[in-house]
Design a protein that fits this description.
By secondary structure, this protein is an alpha/beta fold. It is built from 26 helices and 25 strands. The chain has 4 domains: 38 residues; 247 residues, Spore Coat Polysaccharide Biosynthesis Protein SpsA, Chain A (Alpha-Beta Complex); 167 residues, Glycogen Phosphorylase B (Rossmann fold), CATH 3.40.50; 156 residues, Glycogen Phosphorylase B (Rossmann fold). It is elongated and about 90 Å long.
Length: 707
């Protein structure tokens, strides 16, 4: 529950009742929360979410462990120094250290525990733990100064500040370090914080224009998609915060003006932002945090009382930045969660989460998403099937894409549609399913991207097989309806744009590049062997027809002239018919990784794209050009690549096709000439720079360098 009145009620109850009757005070809060859920009809969903959370997130340590049972490493050259400030509460510290011992990262780390002169004789129990460095202050310095003092003694390249009332889960530190390995502009990385009941405590922090701050997602279900993608945030809590030591030391550590505690982490994030660096939330770093165990929950007493005073110090210091870049309290949550005051919000909808090692359409869409992310846009991706799709969805989330999986898309649009600037909807059926909903809930500009002309492709299939006329007609109607409803229509080839203009003269249509590559092969000598490569995703029917035609009518002619030649059919989701092709000199390689596919391209002598039906630019053609593997294809395969017939063989005739392959298998001089010419063509036609320029220009998105 995120209602503001509840947070006020919760604070009042804990302030007035926590000291005398803490159990009763917390029970009252839970009772009111349950009553609210019951009254709003969300109780059943909340209980189901709670059961789901407990299955995924469980406190690793519940009792008080024996110090002698905790074994921690003490490497000579740690990469990370974990700094744990304490003031008494030895049982909490023991549980914290035991959890670290159970979830050690893949990198060397040292553990520094600072006892801030607590009058607690049990502190000596910490000396029984092997592998930690215990620093005992002779006078109390407070949280902030204790952290700074420990940082000055640390030897790791990274400092990990970790409250003693936390318990880490497996993968916690590796996930935080990954932010720095994949984001060159990272300055801070913070974790997903969980309450002991497995509900969400914090998924990054939001700072409002008055200097007040929110824990994003507080008390929500941590499994929700909105809490599980990497994103830039205003700040992350110092309860679990990773920073490069040299950056922290260069800034003088936490600013002493916020001593003894509160707002020191928020101020650090703002000072790091002033260096041109960013604070990232890492949802795969999951840590339980017993909020209030260190400083209590009463904002009117103890160290907690410094929170309001330090808010005013912070607001005064950063007044100009807050006014320029931050929203009024509680508004525009969609943007505020990821520093989106000056960044466009783009919603992308396709039939499913892209699987780039499975089909060309996925590689096409992934290039679009990467380009949009690089522009600084906030990307929301909706798979029309509603599925996260395992590792593929997780990869998008790690890249910074908010994947809107699940069944509540209509509710999400109703709540957030006003903040969406642009919608890119792909494919005719997906557009049919979503355009009415989009028009009802948002005023965003809608761009339709067809991947290819589905109706034209199906018409060509009808002409060849005599089957599927009704489906072709239906697809044409869906396409033309999508064109009529969209503000802009995009296709990857000039031929398709011309066809749209012929069928619907009033529609605004524009060509956009299919893929963008950053790396291209170098001209080289032919590889050893006589390997012919056929790459395809067999969920796409034209690819099965191409494989059957090639193996039936062309491959025997090639083998007759080159008996040593071998054929590698590399593709996802092969049908039983395709699997049956495997045999003498024909290898069937299903669902290979991107790395394995790259190796097939590297060792192939010839790439074949024998498509007889289809439409649009083919990603496998672009990949062959990029990798410099001499290509033999058909007019359908060559579509959308101007001048391809001058550097590759393009034919519909089986004998001519076979002859072209044999020439490339035998003639090293021809091979090298084609290899060099195809790489040059790829650099001119399929570079990332040209794709970014054409796509962003078509969508009218300017690259953001940040406010």
């Amino acid at each position: 529950m995120k209602a503001a009145w509840f947070e006020d009620f919760r604070a009042w109850v804990l302030r007035h009742g926590a000291a005398d009757r803490p159990l009763l005070a917390r029970a009252a809060v839970r009772l009111v929360r349950m009553a609210w859920w019951l009254g709003t009809g969300s109780l059943v969903a909340r209980l189901r979410a709670s059961r789901r959370r407990v299955r995924h997130f469980t406190l690793p340590v519940t009792g008080v462990p024996d110090p002698k049972d905790i074994h921690l490493p003490n490497p000579a050259a740690p990469l990370v120094s974990v700094i744990i400030p304490t003031y008494g509460q030895v049982s909490l510290t023991l549980r914290c250290l035991a959890a670290i011992a159970r979830a050690l990262p893949s990198v060397p780390l040292e553990i520094i525990v600072i006892d801030d002169a607590a009058p607690d004789p049990d502190i000596v129990r910490l000396t029984e733990i092997g592998g930690i460095r215990l620093i005992r202050h002779t006078r109390n310095q407070g949280f902030l100064l204790s952290c700074n003092a420990a940082a000055a003694t640390a030897s790791g390249a990274f400092l990990m500040f970790l409250n003693n009332d936390t318990q880490v889960l497996p993968g916690w530190l590796d996930a935080l370090l990954k932010i720095f390995h994949t984001r060159p502009d990272a300055g801070l990385a913070g974790a997903m914080l969980l309450y002991p009941d497995s509900s969400l405590q914090e998924a990054g922090g939001i700072v409002w224009d008055d200097g007040s701050a929110w824990n994003a997602g507080r008390t929500d279900d941590p499994m929700k998609p909105e809490h599980n993608y990497v994103r830039e945030v205003d700040y992350c809590s110092a309860a679990a915060l990773l920073v490069r030591r040299e950056v922290f030391i260069s800034l003088g550590g936490f600013d002493p003006r916020y001593a003894p505690a509160y707002y020191e982490d928020t101020d650090l994030a703002f000072r790091i932002r002033a260096l041109g660096l960013k604070t990232f939330y890492a949802p795969r770093a999951r840590i339980f945090h017993q909020e209030g165990a260190s400083h209590g929950t009463d904002p009117a007493s103890g160290v907690k009382a410094r929170q309001r005073a330090n808010q005013e110090v912070f607001r005064t210091r950063w007044a100009d930045l807050l006014a320029r870049d931050h929203f009024p309290n509680g508004t525009h949550l969609l943007r505020a969660r990821e520093r989106g005051r000056h960044r466009p919000v783009v919603l992308v909808i396709d039939h499913a989460v892209p699987q780039p090692d499975r089909d060309g359409g996925s590689r096409n869409l992934l290039c679009f998403l990467e380009t949009l992310l690089a522009s600084g846009a906030l990307i929301k991706f909706r798979p029309d099937d509603g599925l996260l799709c395992g590792e593929y969805g997780a990869a998008l989330q790690q890249a910074g894409v908010h994947v809107l999986c699940g069944d509540d898309f209509s509710d999400w649009l109703h709540a957030n549609g006003a903040d969406i600037d642009l919608v890119l909807v792909c494919r005719p059926i997906v557009a049919h399913n979503n355009l009415p909903l989009l028009r009802r809930h948002t005023r965003a500009r809608i761009v339709y991207y067809g991947h290819d002309l589905h109706g034209l492709r199906l018409r060509r299939q009808v002409a060849m097989t005599g089957k599927g006329q009704q489906e072709a007609a239906r697809m044409e109607r869906l396409e033309q309806d999508a064109w009529a409803q969209a503000d802009l229509v995009l296709y990857p080839s000039a031929e398709e744009i011309a066809e749209v203009a012929r069928l619907a003269p009033g529609v605004r249509a524009q060509q956009v590049q299919l893929v963008g590559f950053t790396c291209f092969a170098e001209p080289r000598l032919p590889p050893p062997g006589l390997r012919v490569l056929f790459v395809a995703g067999f969920s796409h029917p034209p690819n099965e027809d191409a494989a059957m035609w090639f193996t039936r009518d062309i491959w025997p002619l090639i083998r007759k002239q080159c008996p040593a030649a071998t054929l590698d059919i590399v593709g996802s989701n092969p049908t039983e018919t395709i699997k049956a092709l495997a045999g003498d000199a024909i290898g069937m390689h299903a669902n290979v990784s991107a790395e394995a596919l790259a190796e097939f391209y590297r060792t192939a002598r010839v790439a074949v794209v024998p498509l007889r039906v289809g439409a649009g630019v083919k990603v496998k053609v672009a990949e062959s050009l990029r990798d410099g593997v001499p290509l033999v294809t058909t007019p359908i395969g060559a579509q959308g690549v101007p001048g391809l017939d001058s550097i590759a063989d393009v034919t519909n005739d089986a004998e001519t096709f076979a002859t072209a392959v044999v020439r490339l298998l035998r003639d090293d001089t021809l091979w090298q000439s084609r290899c060099r010419a195809q790489i040059a063509q790829a650099r001119a036609t399929f570079s990332q720079a040209t794709m970014q320029a054409t796509l962003l220009a078509a969508l009218d998105i300017r690259v953001s360098s940040g406010p």
